[in-house]
Amino acid sequence: MHVPPGMRRVVAAVCAVALASSPALLAPTTAGASGAATASASAEIPHLTAKVTKRGIRVTGTDGLRAGRVHLTVTGRATVEFVTFKEGYGPDRFVADVNKCGEKCNVKALRRAIANTTIIGGTSPGEATIVFPRAGAYYPFTIGERGAAVGRAFRVSGPPRRSRAPRVDGSIIAKSGLAWGGASTLPAEGRFRFQNRRSAGVPHFVQLQQVVEGTTADQVLESFQAGPGGPPPPFLEATLLTGTLSPGHSMTVDYDLPPGHYAVMCFFPDPDMKGMPHAFMGMIRIIRLT
After folding, report:
1. Which residues form the signal peptide (predicted)?
2. Rg for the chain, CA atoms, rounded
3. Residue 255 pLDDT more than 70?
4. Per the CB 3.0–4.6 Å rule, which of 39, 61, 273, 279 could disulfide with 48?
């Protein structure tokens, strides 16, 4: 669940000077899927495809789907993620709650959305694997400039199908205390595992954003804290955006990005800080792609 439309405008304002023509924090990922990685993953596990269209969210490959890991391809221009709801809470309430968290976030609505959902990941246009943890109804959703939209539900049967996790080149781990762990260096093309540890306590997603060589996490944070009137973040064009994970879940992401330094960030709104994005609170780490 990415930055809601109102907060997206705040982030866009911070980044406007550096990314005026196509703000990287709002754009679809520029990462391409690794062909070898995709073929290897799809040969072993079921394959879903998803796309946001004018008529809604189209997902294929769900017939007869069992719980467990699936390979996901998202096409088009928008991010697609997947969620399951607690009994008594459904897509209409979810959309209403998400859309109440903008520049002035309704924290009560944000907390309600977090408490009643399990978000299992997704991706901007590209390739990933996600895990449906148990049997039940799941919904695709997307969040754009007009707010959240939820697609038609599909059912996943049980028990979970066992499958081998695909090979990865390293991990990016969301930890407690709004901190990142995992690899400090990754290849410029490959696959990483994104894990949101249960101890993290809140949902997270990964924004990989290329930065000027030598940039520090403190410099990125200072540019956010300075606001629209301060210096722009030291961002370059290349970017990658994952779907959101609730605590205790993981996914893998295929990517192909230019070598260089990248800021690992999460802009999920924090319920304890009136909806402030996690990156504005210091959830930033610099890694290198070689």
Report:
1. 1-26
2. 18
3. yes
4. 61
